Amino acid sequence: MIRNTAQSPGIRRDRAALALKLLTVANAGLYFVAAALHLGVRIPLGFVTLRFPEPIPGATAVEALIGAGLAAAAVALSGAWGREGRLVRGAYVFALIGTLFGLTIALLRGLRGADIWVHGVMLAGLAGGFALLLGAARSRAVRGNV
């Protein structure tokens, strides 16, 4: 007996929605960890300790706000798409603007190492979120739910 292994559109949408929720939670966590590190907190991970060379309180405030926005977006993703979708898109746009601003400041200050690579990780996480959001928007457009 041959089984049809193609997934239905509903299953693909559910998996994409779950992926976006999980990625948004991970992104929020990343920003909260970065905020703590910018306060001067050291996080030991076995043979390595995460830390930034110098505390930057201004970065802490912005990263905590971005983390809170992304956390709210993750909670909103538990509901149906509609107004929640606007909140999620807004949180990702706010995070992108804040991250690019922070990276610009870090580069202008001549910072290196962890201060730069963490922005790269943040941008990669945001890119994944934007890709999933774009896929959801395309899916709604195809269904006529624009």
Q: What's the gist of this structure?
A:
The chain is mainly alpha-helical. The chain has one domain. It has helices spanning 9-38, 57-76, 83-108, 114-143; strands spanning 43-45, 48-50.
Describe this structure in words.
- With 146 residues, this protein is mainly alpha-helical.
- It has one domain.
- Helix content is 73%, strand content 4%.
- The protein has helices spanning 9-38, 57-76, 83-108, 114-143, and strands spanning 43-45, 48-50.
- Strands 1-2 form a two-stranded antiparallel ribbon.
- Helix 1 (9-38) packs antiparallel against helix 4 (114-143).
- The model has no long low-confidence stretch (mean pLDDT 86).
- Alpha-beta content class: mainly alpha
H and E string? HEEHHH
The strand line-up of the biggest sheet is 1-2
Number of helices: 4
